[in-house]
Amino acid sequence: MKVSEIMTRDLTSVEKDIPIKELIFILDSAKMSDMPIVDEEGKLIAFISTKDVIKAALPGYFEMLHSASFIPDMNQFAKKLGQIADEPVERHMHSDVICVEVDDDDLQAADLIIRKNLKSLPVVDVERRLVGVVRRIDLLHHLL
Amino acid sequence: MIVTVTPNPSVDVTYWVDHLKIGKETQEEYLTRATDSDISAGGKGINISIFLARMGLENIAMGFVGGYTGHVVVRALRDEGVTTNFVWTGSGETRTNLTVLEHGHEHVPILIDGPGVAVAESEMNRFMRRYRRMLKVADWVVLAGSLPPQANLAFYYELAELAKQAGAKVAISAGASCLTHCLPAAPNIVKPDIREHLSFEWMKLRTKEEIISAGKRIVRGGVEMMIVSHEVIGDIVITPDSIWEISARVQTTQFRNLVGADDALLGGVIYQIYSGAGIEQALRFGLAAGILSAESREKVCGDMGQIEHEMANVSLKRI
Question: Which residues have CB under 8 Å from A68's CB, separation 6+?
Fold first, then answer.
């Protein structure tokens, strides 16, 4: 089966200059966990996930800790999140975006989602324009 | 690619009842139990998107959605194979429109349309950015339905201007007050919403003669086609070269759900023109799609074979 037959036909995406707080609003409203980032032509240029935003808002020493129990409360996280709220998405996005083309095989999409531990995978056309997204549930829904 | 814009979409709730009880005192007297019901995504542009998808035509639906009902709209479109590109609003839920169809009187439905939610300036800016992106792939843009509360009446004018600059053709289906503001952009097709009082600033459209006179004036301004539903089963179409009267040999008592029939008509015309058909074929197909939609429980008929068969009942004459 082609990716075009299983993908969710949704073009919800943002531009790289929008602030993080706007990204969070769109992710929450649209019930998405990841967001494709496109240029003014609608071409996919990057990707950002809720995990990336959380990581950006965590204290710098967090990665050295083995457990979150060393952090007294969420205040530091909230404060840092407030500090980055007006920063452009560009500062925290991944430009090495993983995607599939609309005519690719569904197996290729499944392989990428599993091996790269992705929640969703952007789908582009031959000109790299965003045309949809394959989510984990799309694979399950269409295979059953 | 066809892009539809529905700025004020809805969740359409439809009830079919044997007899609508109104103005009684006890519960037994005022409780009306429906014999059938339906929930669907609605709004003129959305109905057209669904119709086009059922005809096998890929299209992108745009507009504003919010809250739980916004998700109902988006999900319904995706299930139909329509690509969605909506801006989420933070000011409330996408509206709900209610239709009550009483047995034997389906051609005069009771309609209660919600007002919708206002769109913030930042959300409008977000939409405009996305809309400009979509124009890069659009051959046709369909601007259809009412505007959100407090929206600028020139909203469609601005969208039509941008679409024409980008080389796309434009169809607009809206109330006369909104449509009046769009005419300077010379959209290719205009269809006034007959549910609203049909009147332009400079002329009321009550009779066939008044419709033709207004249509001639509008096409002189650069519009290629104006379609006006003059009677339930007939339309008047004005182009720079001709005036057409199209009608169908059907009884209004056959109608089961008029909501969406007008949108199926415009969708049918656009589908045919987009596919390279001539005007006569497009009008026959459009009216047949509208009639079949009115006769079916669903808002828009998606059966190509049935529509082509129904075209035999459509008559078209130049006047």
Answer: A62
